[in-house]
TrEMBL record:
SUPFAM superfamilies: Inosine monophosphate dehydrogenase (IMPDH). It holds the Pfam family NMO. Keywords: Flavoprotein, FMN, Oxidoreductase. InterPro entries: Aldolase_TIM, NMO. The keyword Flavoprotein applies. CDD domains: NPD_like (cd04730). This is Probable nitronate monooxygenase. Coiled coil: none annotated. Nitronate monooxygenase that uses molecular oxygen to catalyze the oxidative denitrification of alkyl nitronates. Acts on propionate 3-nitronate (P3N), the presumed physiological substrate. Probably functions in the detoxification of P3N, a metabolic poison produced by plants and fungi as a defense mechanism.
Length: 320
C-alpha cells in the first residue's frame, strides 16, 4: 500500500467521495469502520453542521475519516476552523486551490487531497503543498471536467511526484485494479456508495440509481460553466433544454437557468423530487443494482481487486 494510506492507517486505499448532502455521518462512519476512508460532504453547509457530523462520526468509530471542503462555499473559513479544532485526518477539496489553508490544516495534522480534472491543476496543487492528488474523470457523478479517468490518471501520475488517487467510473474491484495499473495509489468512489444501506437519501433517489442503465446520465451546466453529471429526469432534461436554447439564442444570459439549478441536489436528496431535483450520479450507475451495507461494498470491491492484482487472469492471458 502507498505510504500515504499507510500513514493514514486504513486497511484499503479506498476513499468514499465526499458528496454534498449525501455523505453524512452514517455512511462515513460505516465506510471508515470497514477499513476504507469515509469523507463527510460539507458542500455549502454551515460550520455547525460540519462539526455535528464530525462528532457523530467520532462517536461511531475511532478509525480515520475526512471532510470534503467546497472552496467556493460562503462558510469555507468557519468550516476550515472547525476542521482544525477537530483534527480531522484528511481534507479533500473541490472547486479551487486550497493553498491558503494548507499551513493551518497541516499544523492541525490533516492530510490535504484536492480533487482535480486536469494535469495543469494537478501541478498547481503540488506547488500549494498538498499531500496527494485525486484525479477525477468526467465519468463521475457530480461536478466534472472534460477528461476521462482512463486518459487523465496516467497523465497526472507522470506529471506529479505525489500519490494519485483515481476517481470517476470506478464501481468494483475491476475498476480499482485498472486504476492501480494506470499508476494510481488508491481510488475514490462516489456513485457505488449511493446504494449503501447507510446512505441517507430519499428512496426515489436510491431507486433511480438502482434502476439506471449505462446511458442514463447526462451532463448539465456545460454552457453555464459548471458541468455536472446527473441522472436523466424531467429536471435535468428541462435544464439542458433551457441552457441549450440560451446558448443558441446568443444572449448568454444564464441567470434563469442557474436559478433552476439552485438547491436541486438538496431537493433530490431530501424530497426525492423528480421534477425539480438533480439526482447526481456517475456513468457507473448502470453497475449499481442492489442495496448493501457499506462494509459489504468495501469488502467486496477490495477482495475482487486483490484477486485480480495478485493472480490476474488478464496478466496470464497476456503472458501466454
Ligand atoms: C451525489 C454526488 C455528490 C457529490 N458531491 C461532491 C462534493 O460535494 N464535493 C466533491 O469534491 N465531489 C463530489 N462528488 C464527487 C465524488 O466525491 C466522487 O469523486 C465521484 O463520485 C467519483 O466518481 P463516481 O461517481 O464515478 O464514483 C459528488 C458525487 C456525487 C455522485
Amino acid at each position: 500500500m502507498s505510504p500515504l494510506f499507510e500513514r493514514l492507517g486504513v486497511k484499503y486505499p479506498i476513499i468514499q467521495g465526499g458528496m454534498a448532502w449525501v455523505a453524512e455521518a452514517h455512511l462515513v462512519a460505516a465506510v471508515s469502520a470497514a477499513g476504507g476512508l469515509g469523507v463527510i460532504g460539507s458542500g455549502h453547509a454551515p460550520a455547525d453542521y460540519v462539526r455535528t457530523q464530525i462528532r457523530a462520526v467520532k462517536a461511531q468509530t475511532d478509525r480515520p475519516f475526512g471532510v470534503n471542503v467546497m472552496l467556493l462555499s460562503p462558510h469555507v473559513e468557519e468550516v476550515i476552523q472547525v476542521i482544525e479544532e477537530e483534527h480531522v485526518a484528511v481534507v479533500t477539496t473541490g472547486a479551487g486551490d486550497p493553498a491558503r489553508y494548507v499551513p493551518r490544516l497541516r499544523a492541525a495534522g490533516s492530510l490535504i487531497l484536492p480533487v482535480v480534472p486536469s494535469v495543469a491543476l494537478a501541478k498547481r496543487m503540488v506547488r500549494s503543498g498538498v499531500d496527494g492528488i485525486i484525479a477525477e474523470g468526467m465519468e463521475s457523478g457530480g461536478h466534472i471536467g472534460s477528461l476521462t479517468t482512463m486518459a487523465l490518471v496516467p497523465q497526472v501520475v507522470d506529471a506529479v511526484d505525489l500519490p494519485v488517487i483515481a476517481a470517476g467510473g470506478i464501481a468494483d474491484g475491476r475498476g480499482i485494479a485498472a486504476a492501480m495499473m494506470l499508476g494510481a495509489s488508491g481510488v475514490q468512489m462516489g456513485t457505488r456508495f449511493l446504494s449503501a444501506q447507510e446512505t441517507q437519501i430519499h428512496p426515489n433517489y436510491k431507486n433511480a440509481v438502482l434502476k439506471a442503465k449505462d446511458v442514463d446520465t447526462l451532463v448539465t451546466g456545460l454552457y453555464v460553466g459548471h458541468a455536472a453529471r446527473v441522472l436523466k429526469n424531467p429536471m435535468s432534461r428541462a435544464y439542458l433544454k433551457m441552457e441549450r436554447q440560451i446558448a443558441i439564442s446568443g444572449t448568454d444570459d444564464y441567470a434563469g437557468v442557474e436559478e433552476l439549478g439552485n438547491g436541486a441536489l438538496r431537493r433530490a436528496v431530501q424530497e426525492g423530487d423528480n421534477e425539480h431535483g438533480s439526482f447526481m450520479a456517475g456513468q457507473v450507475a448502470g453497475m449499481v443494482d442492489h442495496v448493501q451495507p457499506a462494509a459489504a461494498i468495501v469488502d467486496e470491491v477490495a477482495q475482487q481487486a486483490n484477486q485480480l492484482l495478485m493472480n490476474s487472469p488478464v496478466a496470464s492471458a497476456w503472458l501466454q
